[in-house]
Amino acid sequence: MLAIAVYETIYNMNKTHHLNCFFLDVNLEQTKNTNISDVLTCILNSVFSLVTSTGNALILHVIWKTQELHSPSFIFLFCLAATDLLVGLIIFTQPFYVAYKIAELTNNYGAYCILRMIKSISGWTTSGASLAILSGVSIDRLLVLTLHLRYNAIVTVQRVLQTVFVVWMLSVTIVMLRFRIRQWLIFPAAIVVTSFLVTTMSTLKIFQIVRRYQRQISQQQQSVTL
Predict the structure, then answer these.
(1) Which of 23, 217, 8 is nearest to 113 (CA)?
(2) What topology is assigned to 24-225 in CATH?
(3) What is the tens place of the pLDDT at every residue in 125-150?
C-alpha cells in the first residue's frame, strides 16, 4: 500500500509538470504563500471589477441619454468606456481571472484551462482595443484644435464608429495570431509602443497649441489695455 501511494504521488507530480493548455504555461503547484496571494488577488480583482463596471456604465448611460453629447468626440469616449466596461463585466477579464484562480486553488484543471484561455484572449483583445481607442481620443482632441471649422465636416460619428470597428477587428486578428506565431509578443509590444508614442506626441502638440493661444490672448489683452 505504501508503494502504491508513493507511485501515485510521483505520477501526480509528473502530471502537474507536464500539463498543457494550448499556448499557456501551466504550473498548478501550490504553496501557502501562493495560495494567500491568489486569494488576495481574487478579492482585489472582484472589487476593481465592480468599480470598473459601475463607473463605465454611468459614463455610457450619461452619453447615451444626453442628445447634446452625441458628437464624434463623445462617441470616442463612449467607445472607450464600453471597451473598459467589457474588462469589468462577467464575460471578460477580471471576473474570469477570479474564476480561473478559484479553479486553480481547487485543482480543477479542466475548468482552469478553459477559464484561463478565455481570460487570456479577452484580456489581450480588450487591452489592445482600449489602448488604440485611447490614442484615437488624443488624436481627436488634436484635430479639434487644428481643423477648426473643418472638424465637423471631416470627423463624423459614422467615421468614428468605422474607426472603432476596424480597431476591434485588428485587435481580434492579432490575438488570434497567437495560435500560429511563436514570437507573437512582438505584436502587442508594437501596439503598446505605438499607442504610447501617438498619445504622447498628440498631448505635447495640444499643449503647444494651447500655450500659443494663451500667448496670443495675453498679447491682445495687453494691446487693448494700452
Answers:
(1) 23
(2) Rhopdopsin 7-helix transmembrane proteins (1.20.1070)
(3) 888 899 999 999 999 999 998 998 89
